[in-house]
Amino acid sequence: MSSTSTSITSPRRACVPHPTPDPSVFDLNDIQGDVFPSFPKKCEWFIFFDIQDPVAFKKALCDFIPKITTAARVMNNLKAVNLAQQPTTPAHEYQSQAPFHYGRKERKLVPLKQYQIALTKAGFDVLGVTGKLQDTDFDAGQLADAFNLGDRPGPGSTAAKFVPDWEPVWRENVLHGVILIA
């Protein structure tokens, strides 16, 4: 498996989950946590990969699956983050403090490690998971849907043929998946 890694610092803030989600709607242990409700994070890394040995990848995937952060775990993580962010001083005491305090001592970070994995159609094909997923955009791949996703036109783009402004490594190689670490 070869990989390329990139890191993005995320400015978004954690949201507090509904205290009692309806378990009849979703099995929160069967949903990756950055899909719903979304990872609380200060930073995240994306490791893009291609699968060169499907048998070895399947074995490694079995070892990785227990590390995947479920939506149920993220709900608990969000509660911990929310608790850590609670004001530490009553409002009447902090209003006279310097404005940079905003009623809190320094914001506390909750140490979390959260993981997610996603495969492309090409990744599923390499693993022998074939067939249509009844999602034409997914089946066609990212390159085919780049225009609809709002990607900028690149060199060689015409009205008849859209060429996204992607770096050559992404345009010329097949991407099989991504691991997200936050």
What does this structure look like?
This protein has 182 residues and is of the alpha+beta class. It has one domain. Helices cover 24% and strands 14% of the residues. It contains six helices and four strands, in the order E-E-H-H-H-E-H-H-H-E. It has helices at residues 54-64, 71-84, 91-94, 121-126, 136-140, 168-171; strands at 2-9, 43-50, 115-119, 177-181. A four-stranded antiparallel sheet has the order 1-2-4-3. The longest helix is centred in the middle third of the chain and has 14 residues, at 71-84.
The residue-averaged pLDDT reads 81
The string of secondary-structure elements, in order, is EEHHHEHHHE
Q: What's the count of strands?
A: 4
Please state roughly what percent of the residues sit in beta strands, choosing from under 5%, 5-15%, 15-25%, 25-35%, 35-45% or over 45%.
5-15%
Binned, the helix content reads 10-25%
Q: How far is the N terminus from the C terminus?
A: 21 Å
Q: How many discrete structural domains?
A: 1
What is the helix tally? 6
Structural class, please? alpha+beta
Major β-sheet strand ordering: 1-2-4-3
Rg, rounded, reads 21 Å
Task: Let me know the largest β-sheet.
Answer: 4 strands, antiparallel
Please state the overall shape, judged from the principal axes of the Cα atoms: globular
Which spans of ≥5 residues are poorly predicted at pLDDT below 50? 7-14, 92-102
Task: Record the SSE blueprint.
Elements (H helix, E strand, L loop, with lengths): L1 E8 L33 E8 L3 H11 L6 H14 L6 H4 L20 E5 L1 H6 L9 H5 L27 H4 L5 E5 L1
Antiparallel strand pairs: 1-2, 2-4, 3-4
